[in-house]
Specification:
This protein has about 260 residues and is mostly helical. Helix content is about 55%, strand content about 5%. The strands form two sheets. Strands 1-4 form a two-stranded antiparallel sheet. Strands 2-3 form a two-stranded antiparallel ribbon. A hairpin with a 4-residue loop joins strand 2 and strand 3.
């Protein structure tokens, strides 16, 4: 993993003249720009206690927002904290743009590909995610060589699996748009990013709880179809979710910057 420096958070905007709703949204947006779910880019090692915060952290949303907006109304700050933690995330890593982590880890030898190229590859990632979901939703209930190992389980009716499948279908429709880089629905893209990241974190947490270790690395192959052995491998499932979420994050950021 490349050695990179972590830069500090961006300058917090002034809240002068803002009403409560706007101020809360502004604080939440500032935090989301500067901090992110550690499953986006931090290495994970179950034997070492989980995510490895190699660039600082874990950070606490309450502490960071209070420090950045010390003159703001305390109840507004609490609302902003509640908003950024609405998905249950309480431990945060610095955003990738602050570390250079995304470029160094995903593309160690070359320049990061253009968004258009990454979107071209997203379809295959969605197909792999769908196959993983299908395995876990339809796996045999009895004992046998096809049964998932005892170290890891996902219930067939798991809500996160259901939502991830919904997002696979929604994102495919956005990818099919001829002007997808500028006309895709940012709500759909950002929702899919959140769902994939949340499911990836659940998988990593489950493996750690079982005393296992998540095998980190690059997804093998670029094809759309994977065999059953790979489909039932939780580490492979984690990795493709993580890679797809990273592309969705870049896509969503590009779309919202247009408004």
């Amino acid at each position: 993993m490349a050695e990179v420096s972590t830069v500090g958070p961006s300058e917090p905007p002034s809240l002068d003249g803002m009403d409560e709703e706007t101020a809360v949204a502004t604080m939440a947006e500032w935090f989301s720009h500067n901090f992110e779910d550690p499953s986006q880019e931090m290495p994970y090692d179950g034997r070492e206690g989980g995510f490895q915060y190699i660039h600082g952290g874990p950070y606490d949303a309450s502490e960071e927002i209070y420090a950045a907006f010390s003159d703001a109304d305390e109840t507004w700050i609490e609302q902003a904290v509640d908003e950024v933690q609405s998905d249950g995330m309480t431990d945060w890593a610095p955003a990738g743009w602050r570390t250079g982590q995304f470029e160094d880890d995903y593309y160690p030898d070359d320049e990061p590909p253009r968004l258009a190229d990454r979107l071209d590859g997203l379809g295959a990632q969605l197909a792999q995610i769908e196959q993983h979901i299908a395995y876990w939703r339809n796996r045999p209930a009895g004992l046998g060589h096809n049964r998932a190992p005892d170290e890891f389980r996902l219930s067939p009716d798991d809500a996160d699996l259901t939502e991830a499948q919904e997002s696979v279908e929604e994102v495919r429709r956005e990818l099919a748009k001829p002007d997808r880089e500028t006309a895709a629905d940012p709500v759909v893209v950002e929702r899919a990013e959140g769902r994939f990241s949340r499911l990836a974190k659940k998988i990593a947490t489950a493996i750690a709880a079982a005393g296992g270790a998540l095998v980190m690395g690059v997804i093998g192959g670029a094809g759309k179809h994977i065999g059953e052995e790979l489909a039932k491998d939780p580490s492979s499932f984690f990795l493709v979710l993580e890679h797809a979420a990273a592309t969705l994050h870049t896509w969503g950021s590009s779309l919202t910057s247009l408004f």
